[in-house]
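call fold target=Metallopeptidase
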Amino acid sequence: MMNQDPRMLLPGRLVGLSFLCLAVLTPTLADDDTAGSPARFDPVVREVEGWTVHIAPVLLGEAASGDDASGNEHRSLKMLANHLQRIQILLRPAALAKLQQVEIWIEKEHPSLAAMQYHPSRGWLLGNGHDERLTKKVHIPRADQLLSKEQMLKHPAVILHELAHAYHDQFLGFDQPEIIAAFEEAKLTKRYENVLSYTGQNVRHYGLSNHKEYFAEGTEAYFYRNDFFPFVRAELEQHDPTLHDLLGRLWGERSSK
């Protein structure tokens, strides 16, 4: 996300799609600012399928004060575990070990943030009045999104998408030159300007938003299923062989050059 979800503006798109929180720092606030940020609750920290997950106590019901599972736990926690189990199956061990270093924050309903996102910048969080503890975490602001049939049909790899942003930021670097070069090539060829979406409409691919979304969207197709053509790996290989081969190397599926 830039500060606003670009997908909300596309035909057929619905509020709540995943996007990257790539906020621009305000001129008066840098990442090393020591000002505090609001804390609406202290999360319960648990390990879920190898990931450290910060959980709003309200989602745990009676289990919030202990370690035992409770029948009052929110169903979204099981669905989050389901997403993470699929990622465990899909990724090679080396890439998975890196991805499991990325922490996740889930809450019942954030007052202003709606879509799932990744927060690379502490400065942006502070500048916009958000909890700085979200820095470098994948954020699920509204747990019910994980239980939405609409969301599942549209974006079954939403957690993978957000973790891909974190992988790009923390392990490759947002300035990784090969990703930028592949993105520029994709723009020049215009191969993503008019593609089929999961709705049956032809639209401009969301991956053209920037090279970060290009990487995350491509990752969805490479490992699972995206909501824009190319939907799956075989289609990606035919439609954008440069990105297909690059993703294979960057995720450790293929040998490096």
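return ok
The radius of gyration is 18 Å. The mean pLDDT is 86.
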